[in-house]
Amino acid sequence: MAANIMIVDDEQAIADLIAVYLQNEDYNIFKFYNGLEALHCAENCQIDLAILDVMLPDVDGFSICRRLREKHNFPIIMLTAREEEIDKITGLTLGADDYITKPFRPLELIARVKAQLRRFTRYNAMEQVQFQAQAQEERLITLRGLVLNKDTHECTLNERNLVLTPTEFSLLWVLCVNRGRVISSEELFHDVWGEKYFNSSNNTVMVHIRHLREKMQDSAERPKYIKTVWGVGYKIEK
């Protein structure tokens, strides 16, 4: 069954170009030139991935991303004409899974779309990646008030529900499965994203870790759960 992809960009030529390339890959397209119509679509249609421009005439892409993450966990790719690192970090912090800077090559965007859909499909089907081989029998993790349920993909901390994106849940699961052992950023990226690691990937991991800590009300300076081992990676103590 073809995936449903939502495109939100007020530059009609760009939105139309992206739509053509995606339709050539047999994806179903929902195309919008403003944010409000896109949000309405997300509430009433089954969307498998969203491509959001940051600069829109009514609601900016960051706000759309934040509102989508309140109810939906499908992959979100941000489009931005800005090159400032803070914009990329903002998107990731709000729950985006990837970003691409304009101008971009359409084929690169298509590759990013396919990579995100593959990862999301694996997540929904609960297929196991390499790091999970040792924990195939482990479906429930309980650790000092932290509870992760792999069957329901729910997480609670001291009986308080944590609303995690698929990426955040996967990151926390990896760390908990390997509790007591330091996991490098490269290993985390490979296990969670299933893609080749580049130097820029470390920033992606760092932002998601920071977002996890915020939701867990944890501190990087005095961590109760996720500890940074400088120059090595991250770990959760047993």
What does this structure look like?
The protein has 238 residues and is α/β, with parallel strands linked by helices. The chain has two domains: 4-125, Rossmann fold (3-Layer(aba) Sandwich); 130-236, Orthogonal Bundle (Arc Repressor Mutant, subunit A), CATH 1.10.10.10. The protein has eight helices and eleven strands. It has helices at residues 12-24, 35-44, 61-69, 85-93, 106-125, 166-177, 185-193, 201-216, and strands spanning 4-8, 28-32, 49-53, 76-80, 98-101, 140-143, 146-149, 154-157, 160-162, 226-229, 233-236. Strand 10 (226-229) and strand 11 form a beta hairpin. The chain starts with a strand and ends with a strand.
How do you describe this structure in short?
This protein has 238 residues and is α/β, with parallel strands linked by helices.
Key features of this structure:
20% strand; single chain; 5-stranded parallel β-sheet; alpha/beta; 41% helix; 238 residues; Arc Repressor Mutant, subunit A; Rossmann fold
Structural class: alpha/beta
Q: Residue ranges: pLDDT <50 for 5 or more in a row?
A: 127-137
The coarse silhouette is globular
Strand and helix order:
EHEHEHEHEHEEEEHHHEE
The structural domain count equals 2
Classify the helix fraction into a percent range. 40-55%
Could you state the CATH homologous superfamily of the largest domain?
Answer: Response regulator
Strand order of the largest sheet: 2-1-3-4-5
CATH architecture group name of the largest domain:
3-Layer(aba) Sandwich
Biggest sheet character: 5 strands, parallel
Total number of helical segments?
8
Estimated radius of gyration? 18 Å
Strand content: 15-25%
CATH topology of the largest domain: Rossmann fold
- By DSSP, the count of extended strands is 11
